[in-house]
Amino acid sequence: xxxxxxxxxxxxxxxPTLFGYIGVxxxxxxxxxxxxxxxxxxxxxxxxxxxxxxxxxxxSMLLAGSPVSAIILSTFLIxxxxxxxxxxxxxxxxKASLLDNVALGSLLTDETFALSMNKLNQTKQTLAPRWLHxxxxxxxxxWAVATVIGDVLGQLITDPNQFGLxxxxxxxxxxxxxxxxxxDRSKSLQTQLLVVLFVAILMTxxxxxxPGNIALLIATLLGCGxxxxxxxx
Amino acid sequence: xTTYILSTILWCGLVTWLxxxxxxxxxxxxxxxxxxxxxxxxxxxxxxxxxxVESLLVYHAGHWPTVNLANLYASIPAIGAGILTxxxxxxxxxxxxxxxxxxxxxxx
Lengths: 233, 108
Prior knowledge:
The structure holds 2 protein chains of 2 kinds. Helix content of chain A is 73%, strand content 0%. By secondary structure, chain A is an all-alpha fold. Chain B has a domain at 1-30. In chain B, 77% of the residues lie in helices and 4% in strands. Chain B has helices spanning 3-29, 34-40, 43-56, 69-85, 88-105, and strands at residues 57-58, 66-67. A two-stranded antiparallel sheet of chain B has the order 1-2. Chain B is extended, with a radius of gyration of 20 Å. The mean pLDDT of chain B is 93. The chains are: A mainly alpha, B mainly alpha. Chains A and B meet through helix 1, helix 2, helix 3, helix 4 and helix 5 of A and helix 1, helix 2, helix 3, helix 4 and helix 5 of B. Chain A: One of its GO terms (biological process) is L-valine transmembrane transport. Chain A: It is a multi-pass membrane protein. Chain A: Belongs to the AzlC family.
């Protein structure tokens, strides 16, 4: 990754994260197939909802025949972390047009958010809409294609995890977190490691009481507050 | 496709879209206070840690979470690849290959 902020470099920078989309997308398509969801339904869901973990929940709740209101609430809770990420990244696009802002927000994911945070460390803390459009659009297209292929492959492969592809998304976050810690010069290494440690311990405790997605939200909010407190003034 | 499935997809899409877009519109039109900027500056490291740790644990309602051993084992070479290469792609590929081997050898 370099300091270039063109549409083309956005396409290039997002490539390593695509394995995550492909791994999860294939798995989701396969699960959708075994849940008797048509290829068209999967495609529409991937294009309209466009959120990995939420789509897994939606499919399982549809299969269970849950009320629409309960599915919507679950989706909101799982994706509420998007509010934090969008707020965090939106500061860098205050001068961009409203249309650019809406388009960037519409296709922002955990992955392109994390990628942008890494990019900031190469570009003296600036981002350009065209760069993020490039990264977002390629990720969006790959996600839709991967979920549809997964749905079709579902008839052939029963266990996508056999190939280790389910780990692609975890691996991607390991890489992005590590790069974030070693390249973010705005915070001391010690402060960052303290936040990592605090959030890790908190997650373990919170998952005694809450499912992972809720624990994640609480741990992130408290982790940010903790970071402010331990930052040397 | 039934209307049940279609309306669920459309509603869930709307809720997700609003979660993504409203912050952009608000931040564009408001002056963000300094404390909030500082607070939000910790979102990347905090949220990525939380996502990673979530993948290492398995939730059991009413009990302590257990460790996802397969993910824990595969994480070790993946972190090693990160330290050695500082390359995102190398971390992802190392992790996937490690996971495939762990499953093949029946370690977890």
